[in-house]
Amino acid sequence: MKWITSGDIKNWVASKQRHCQDTLPELVRRLILAHTGNTVDEFDFPSGDSVATSGWDGRLKTSVVSPFFPNGPSGWEIGTEKSAQSKAERDYAKRSSDPLGFAATNTTFVFVTPRAWPSRVKWQAAKRLTTTWKDVRVINSDGLEQWLESSPAVALWLARQIGKVVSNGIRDLEAFWEEWAIGTKPVMTAALVIGGRNRDVEAVQKWIAGEPRILEVQGDAPEEAFAFLYASIATLPETERVQALARCVVVENISELRQLTQAFQNYPLIIAAQGECLKAAHAAVAKGHHVFISMDATVIGLREILRLTRPQRGVIEKILHESGLSEADSQRIARDSGHSITVLRRQLFQSNAVSAPPWANAKSACTLIPVLFANAWDEQKDGDRQVIETLSGMDYETFIKELTPFLSIADSPIRKVGNVWMIKSPLDAWFLLAPHIIQDFLKHFKQALLGVLTKTDPKYELDAEKRWAASIYGKANPYSEWLRTGLVESLVLLAVFGDRSSHVASTQTFADQVVKEVFNTADKWEAWASIKDATALLSEAAPDVFMEAVDQLVLRNPTVFQDLMKDDPGVFGECRHSGLLWALEGIAWSSQYFARAVNVLVKLASIDPGGRWSNRAISSLSHLFLPGFPQTHTKAFDRLESLKSIVAKEPKLVWKFSENYYSGGSLTESHRFRWRDTGGTRRGLEHETSEEYQEYMRGLLPILRDLACTRENLTSSIGDFIRLPTETCEKLIATLKATAPDAFSKEEREMLLQKTREALNWINSYDKQNRRVHVPALNQILVKFAPTDVLARVGWLLSSPYPRLPQGESKNHDANEKAVNNARECAAREVLDKVPIADIIKYAGNIQHPGVLGYTLAKVVQDEKEDTLVLDTIIENVTDILALIRGYAHGRVSVVGAGWIDQQIKRIRIKGNYTAEVCAMLYFGLPEGASTWASISSHSKEVEAAYWKHSSGYSQINKNKDAPIAVEKLLDAKRPAAALQIAGDPHGCIPCVLLQRLLQELVAMDENEISIGVMEIYYLGHVFNQIYEKNELSLAEMAALEWPFAAIIDDLKEHTSSPLALHRALQNDPQFFAQLVAFTYKRDDHAPDPARRDLTPEMSERRARAARKILDSWYLIPGVNKDGVLNEKEFRDWVIAARKQCMETNHGIGSDLEIGFMLAHTPSEPNGEWPHIAVRNLIEQLNSETIDRHIQNEIYNSRGIVSRAPSDGGVQERKLAEKYMKMGDSLKGKWPRTAAMLRGVGESYERYAKREDIDSDLHDFRCD
């Protein structure tokens, strides 16, 4: 792109030499900064009046390597005289004698002239030979032309300086600003555009300084974002400001953006573009450019968008007053601008023709006001069309005929994306059309609002499990979300800015009436759930009415909200109460409604049934009172007063949400009103002022300290001990010391002791100094509240595998384990000394790990007499606590050796309380393995059966060697599920006959006895893998074993190194393929299938599902060898035979469907071309429309998961479309049918691309 030629530069100096003399240094300065980025070590180029100062005209030191200027230090002289050589000679001599601080031999001398100077190369070469300077360079008009060609923003800037008219579609940012700002009175300034939005300025400046990426910015109108970009740059330090402006251009459409992207691949720019250019922005970023996208005001994105905050009215008022307007005018204009720079600019514009677009008149308003009220709608929704008819008073088609011409007018207020109509900038359109709103319009508006908002969503007529698929069941909402939220947003605008309409008495009263009628009908949870997307906006439209409605309903009928807050079952359940909470959070930003919102949230939190959603009333309360980041503009004093009020009523609830303040955690911003002023501008993620924070903390800490020490919160507070402030810890300890143990229930005391032990464990393990001072007091609490009952006092040591000792832990694992064992054994000894054995056994029945208790008791038994007493009592009283016997036996063996088992078996035989079950449990005192299992076998079959009824089968001696024994024994014990875990070890080696038996017995199990989960699939895969590797069975035998597991065949193949036998059978046998097709599909003539005559419907359906899974998972193409080479004859013969056999049984259609799917997965030619020549030939030979169509479908459906940015549109699909179109074109001569099939794929992707473009646009313009 060449906008400035050397001729332009020569004409400039010839006709305006003085202007050129003043401006040329600024031109050079901008050109250098456009190419140096942040890598300038020294830079000084005076311009304007400063050009007459002594010294170098320019000094530069940079590490950048550029064809246009030298790297390293360089001194610059700039001259405009007619004799460029004379000027260069004088400057060269002067600087050679006095380089003014430069080391000449390390510095490049640069002379710049706008003249042609034909002999410059000769002069330059001569000076280089003197070696006075490191290098000598001359930049003349030709050099400047080339330099400007790579610097579009600077070229556009120079064009304006010399009065040359260039591209209308591309401007430098300064040109945009001059045009945008100068038409107002007073002139728009950078400070006015910023309007106190300093955080937004920081975000833009950070983006400029960072790596190339897209920054999407949303103002009330697209041009506001560009103006904000300029204003953000204007506040940068001088060098950075010029540097940014020298790279910044504004493009009007996507065509210009693409041209810039291609033309300036090596010279990074800052490109400002409209939202419609987003599709091409990623390509520009890939080329190294920063892309600033101005999004329309209605856009909402799930991705990150910088939404410009509302400018501060006080700042605007102050700047307007300083610009010369009266105080009264400044106040009025600032107020009427509605915190919108776009509206403010319209108000300040000097030309009425510009400030009000042509559609802002009474005639157009008749058509546009229904659109203004609707805001947006989907014309494919019948309900939306009916609402438009209500608003307009016309049938839909007639209204659309009147509306359509507005799409193509200049500065159109509307847009249509796909099936969705919308207002571009609701606020701007509102201010322009509001004067034309009359009562008749409001009558229709109210009718539309109530018709939409009082209708219960039909999906709630379905069972909860089906609601996610409401459209499938014909229960879709008749109104789109576009319309529902759009109508209510218009109601908000009417309420907040309604004074613009001179024909309506009180717009707030109108909004109050509508909202009241909506909530008067909302007496069931379904009604509230149906308007959850609009509830927050309704509260913004009429906050007083909303608060009254919620307040009354929660008192009168709280079950409505209790039911609303319940979770839907299943993974697709929705958070039905989110709209209610967002509404209350939005209202709570205002100090006027804060206390009422808090009281309602407290009531909701107290009746909340809980659930999986984190968005709950108690979370909203926590955010409202959060220190430093309160989600409200309410002053500290008022927040504290409100908190004191609810502490008096609900101390436990307040502690529940406020205890998080000590532990930190994530911070999320609560919902905020979009249009209504809530008394402040601070965002939820911005810290409150230091003064407010300090005042709040001075009041909060005593409240929380007292709260922690209330009777209701003591147990919870001790659990937070390590996070509490010192003063609170001290008061908490004092309170516990003063509290009688019987003030707590048994369960509360147990929890108190557990939390105290955990606190001591952490302090003694990790705390260096701060909290160790509390250790003695905490130990006293343990003593004070310790139960007198021995088991209640020490049971925590004997019932958990990993108790946490109060004395803490060291980094030495062995030492920790020894300490736990010592503590356990002391506790067990005390239990045996003081507690009757019968009570111990009763206690064992109530704990989760009785084996730990049994093991520890066994470790501390003092003599044979006590051993006998304990074991006999356990045997006589235990029925369902066999783990207690196992643990006891394990402990005794660890103390006295394996001989103890035989001794006890002999003894209990003599005593007469011997049972096979007891004998088996005693053997669990020995490590599992072949030797133990052999000993078990020496007893009766009943003992062996009892042992293997409970054994895991995992050998603790030699796992792999003993595995076959375990598998066989577990199968004998009718436990194939347990045997599967042993046999499915990937390192195992089980005899094939056992594996066959295992699979057969698994199939024979009742479906209630086994659950096929992730691990079971893993084990089964490795079982089949062993069978394949052993290769002892025929392919048919292996396939028969796989058939019952067809439902999980896709998952099984992930764990096998060889192809599944069923897949190999399909590859080799077309008759097997024909059988599976017959199992899966109905006959072509729809007659009864003789092959299914003897099958019940359930059997037939089960067989069809199995066949379907096998066909869907099949990937071995007939005729393809293990190296992936396709044999055309084998391949063709298989397909012909398979089709013939299927047609003989009247399953030709099913056959062609499956063959089409299979052909879509055939390999490519060795050179990478697809499809393979054998496939092309077959397609031409078969001449089957069904096969061709299903090849296309399978190509399309097998694409897999697609990820894309929401703004990408159909970029990926267009690439695929182009790919398949080219493939088709390359084959059309020899394989026309194949070519047509491939072109069909390409056309499908083209249609898909257009749909994605529409979805992308709708995503970008979804209302929030």
Describe this structure in words.
By secondary structure, the protein is mainly alpha-helical. It has 64 helices and 14 strands. The strands form three sheets. It has a six-stranded mixed beta sheet, sandwiched between helices. Strand 13 and strand 14 form a beta hairpin. Helix 51 packs antiparallel against helix 52. 41% of the residues are buried. The mean pLDDT is 89.
For the largest beta sheet, what order do the strands appear in spatially? 6-8-9-10-7-11
Strand content: under 5%
Our Rg estimate from Cα atoms comes to 41 Å
**Overall strand count:** 14
Tell me roughly what share of residues is in helical segments.
Answer: 55-70%
What is the top-level CATH class of the domain at 1-163? Alpha Beta
Look at the helices and sheets and give the structural class.
mainly alpha
How many helices does DSSP assign? 64
What is the CATH architecture term of the domain at 1-163?
A: 3-Layer(aba) Sandwich
Helix/strand layout:
Elements: H1 6-15, H2 17-36, E1 40-44, E2 58-62, E3 72-78, H3 84-97, E4 108-112, H4 120-129, E5 135-139, H5 141-149, H6 152-162, E6 170-172, H7 173-181, H8 190-194, H9 198-209, E7 214-218, H10 222-234, H11 238-245, E8 248-251, H12 254-263, E9 270-274, H13 278-286, E10 290-295, E11 306-307, H14 313-322, H15 327-336, H16 341-348, H17 352-355, H18 362-374, E12 376-378, H19 382-392, H20 396-403, E13 414-417, E14 420-423, H21 426-433, H22 439-453, H23 481-497, H24 507-520, H25 525-530, H26 535-541, H27 543-556, H28 559-564, H29 578-588, H30 594-607, H31 617-624, H32 636-649, H33 651-658, H34 660-663, H35 690-708, H36 714-719, H37 726-738, H38 746-766, H39 775-785, H40 790-798, H41 813-834, H42 837-844, H43 850-860, H44 864-877, H45 882-896, H46 899-911, H47 916-922, H48 930-937, H49 941-950, H50 959-972, H51 976-983, H52 992-1004, H53 1014-1030, H54 1035-1042, H55 1049-1052, H56 1061-1068, H57 1070-1080, H58 1097-1113, H59 1128-1144, H60 1148-1159, H61 1173-1182, H62 1185-1197, H63 1211-1227, H64 1232-1260
Parallel strand pairs: 3-4, 4-5, 7-10, 7-11, 8-9, 9-10
Antiparallel strand pairs: 1-2, 2-3, 6-8, 12-14, 13-14
